[in-house]
Amino acid sequence: MSIEQILEQVISRELLAISKKSRRIMILAPVVSDRKGEYTQLFTDLLKKGFSKARVDGEIRDLSDDFLLIKTNKHTIEVVVDRLVLDKDSSKDQSQLSRLHQSLEAAAKLGEGLVIVAEVLDASLEFPANPKKMEDHLYSERFACPVDNIALADIEPRPPAVYLPLPAAGRRSRPGDQQVVRRADRHPVRACARPAWMDL
Questions:
Q1: What angle do CA 98, 102, 108 make, to 5 degrees?
Q2: What is the pTM assigned to this prediction?
Q3: I need a labelling partner for 169 at 20 to 30 A (CA). Which of 62, 137, 138, 196 fits?
Q4: Domains of the chain and any CATH numbers
């Protein structure tokens, strides 16, 4: 899914929902997803790059504020790349389209191909500095269905399953080995893949 396709999706999704009122959106770049750490250096680096806000564990925070994350807890961090207001004329406004394109491109680069477009649902008339209610739409440059463009989160490896080894030939069985042999009915291959003709 290219940046142009993401832009088209964002514009169509938002403008189709617009009646007489405008829509407030934030472009977010996911940089940490459910991982442990304090991320003090990350926040410092983001400030140096010109970013001032991030959504940390679902809450919009100012990166210049003095706050500390619990190292042993898992955290999710999404950088606020831009905040925009879309209306029915946005699809014709070249300057706004250019800004949205640049913001999506910057978010995808920072988020390694992932972009979150969060619609702000707070009841206030103005764009709140730190929104509380948001509806997220995830877009991906790498993992997307070619038919309907449904984006998937990044694929991560899972810890492998642990199996006890079967006893080697000529070696006395240990308690753990005996348990595995019994579980496999002493024929581990046939127990898992028993040909149909053996039951005739």
A1: 145
A2: 0.68
A3: 196
A4: 3-140 (3.30.190.20), 165-200 (no CATH)
